[in-house]
Design goal:
Layout (H helix, E strand, L loop, with lengths): L33 H4 L10 H15 L1 E5 L5 H13 L1 H6 L7 H18 L2 H31 L6 H6 L4 E8 L2 E11 L4 E9 L8 H15 L4 E6 L4 H9 L3 E7 L10 H6 L3 E8 L4
Parallel strand pairs: 4-5
Antiparallel strand pairs: 1-2, 2-3, 3-4, 5-7, 6-7
Helix pairs in contact: 3-6, 5-6
């Protein structure tokens, strides 16, 4: 199967400071506080020090910190990514339907035709269960195919794909010695943009501000390396994911209906029971 570079970004929630201070190459630049680099991230200048201090205290209390990926963590990182994407199956199949009025209308027409043809109220009432079952089946089929592709491309060798190329990096969030969250950044020198990718937090450790901390690490990395903007794309259905990106300063710049993932066949049944909306976000750091 031919796999293009996947662009799904996993939803999560977070905030923390990296307590490591390392100098050297682009990846190893010292990370300054978000309030120093970008006051708008933490609120007004007068309130940002207190706000940042409160965040730091929360993370010290929970022993959460962000650091660069180590090759020995490949499997746990892949597990967190896999589990985060698998959560998309029911979300896409069921929650995603509320954003597809034409599909809802089509399903309603199916119900009317079923009743007219069969004259059976029981069969008509069972039809929605069948339709939701088909949506789950195709959602699972396509997303598993996407996962197979992702796990055999960039997520198969994080060291070579993210850690070695200049302008790219991969971070992990660590709590009590355990990796509980991940995020990647991939730089594009042609248009001087950086892409935020592969953000995910272990479901057992959400609600601690980890996703926002991972996001801010990417923002700091981009600014220290003089990128003009950060972009990301997501098929996330949950509102919380979109609020996270907006809280980091990203602006919604467009949406693609009927987005195509690697492994999709575009069959009639697949089009009837599986649809994705791909949202694009952009954060402008400076004018070119």
């Amino acid at each position: 199967m031919h796999c293009s570079s996947p662009k799904m970004v996993c939803e999560t929630k977070i905030v923390a400071e990296d307590h490591e201070s390392i100098s050297g190459s682009k990846k190893d630049a010292i990370i300054v506080s978000s309030s120093q680099m970008w006051p708008s991230l933490s609120g007004s200048p007068s309130s940002s020090p207190a706000s940042l201090s409160g965040v730091e205290e929360d993370f010290k209390k929970d022993n959460v910190y962000i650091r660069e990926f180590h090759p020995s963590e490949q499997e746990v990182v892949r597990r967190i990514f896999y589990e985060g994407i698998m959560e998309r199956i029911p979300n896409t199949a069921f929650r995603g339907l509320k954003h597809q009025p034409l599909i809802q209308l089509m399903y309603g027409i199916f119900a009317i035709i079923c009743f007219v043809v069969t004259k059976s109220l029981l069969l008509t009432c069972c039809l929605p269960i069948f339709l939701m079952g088909m949506r789950y089946y195709f959602s699972r089929k396509v997303i598993l195919s996407y996962l197979e592709c992702a796990l055999h491309t960039d997520m198969s060798d994080i060291e070579n794909y993210y850690m070695k190329p200049p302008g790219s990096c991969f971070w992990v969030a660590v709590l009590d010695g355990n990796v509980v969250g991940i995020v990647a950044a991939r730089g594009n020198e042609e248009d001087n943009t950086m892409e935020l990718r592969r953000m995910s937090v272990d479901s057992n450790f959400r609600g601690k501000g980890i996703a926002k901390a991972l996001g801010r690490k990417v923002l700091e990395f981009a600014m220290l390396n003089n990128y003009s903007s950060i972009i990301l794309g997501t098929t996330a259905v949950k509102v919380a994911a979109h609020k996270l990106y907006e809280s980091l300063g990203f602006k919604h710049v467009g949406v693609i209906d009927h987005y195509t993932l690697p492994g999709m066949t575009h069959s009639i049944l697949e089009r009837m029971f599986f649809q994705l909306r791909y949202h694009r976000y952009r954060l402008q750091l400076r004018e070119e």
